[in-house]
Design brief:
With about 150 residues, the chain is α/β, with parallel strands linked by helices. It is about 40% helix and about 15% strand.
Length: about 150
């Protein structure tokens, strides 16, 4: 099983951002946690981060047909990234959305989620654990999907 892990704008700056919202770990440290969990489950991960929506779209398109699922923290693109949304739909694979902070309890604009209806699940507000829980849910969903085939 192969999963693409996507991170959007500003997530490369986690160690310099508000710890209350985003936790104290760097993106590299979160990726290491994910890699450890994936290894335990026999899953291969490909990591990609960009501050540019088009590059995230390109990464999805380049991985089309090579992956079984996508784990994404779209960052601020969650609220307005329609081309990213379309690329996720076009990928044809299940997608789980994660957020370090609880975006529903923050600024009003963060309540808008253009990925709603595309993702099979959304894990928010657990800091780095959002990624681990999201990965586990995605792996289990893909396994169930494969079992039905």
């Amino acid at each position: 099983m192969k999963i693409l892990v996507l991170n959007g704008p500003n997530l490369n700056m986690l160690e310099k951002r508000n710890i209350k919202h985003y936790g104290a770990l760097t993106l590299a440290e979160i990726n290491n946690l994910l890699a450890d969990e994936a290894k335990r489950q026999g899953v291969s991960l490909t990591f990609f981060q960009s501050n540019h929506e088009g590059k995230l779209v390109d990464a999805i398109q380049e991985q089309r047909g090579k992956i079984d699922g996508i784990l994404i923290n779209a960052g601020a693109l969650t609220h307005y990234g329609y081309s990213l949304r379309d690329a996720l739909v076009d990928s044809g694979v299940p997608v789980v959305e994660v957020h370090l902070s609880n975006i529903t309890k923050r600024e009003k604009f963060r309540k808008i989620d253009v990925l709603d209806g595309v993702v099979i699940d959304r894990i928010i507000g657990l800091k780095e654990k959002s990624y681990i829980v999201g990965l586990e849910k995605l792996i289990n969903y893909i396994k169930q999907l494969n079992a039905r085939r």
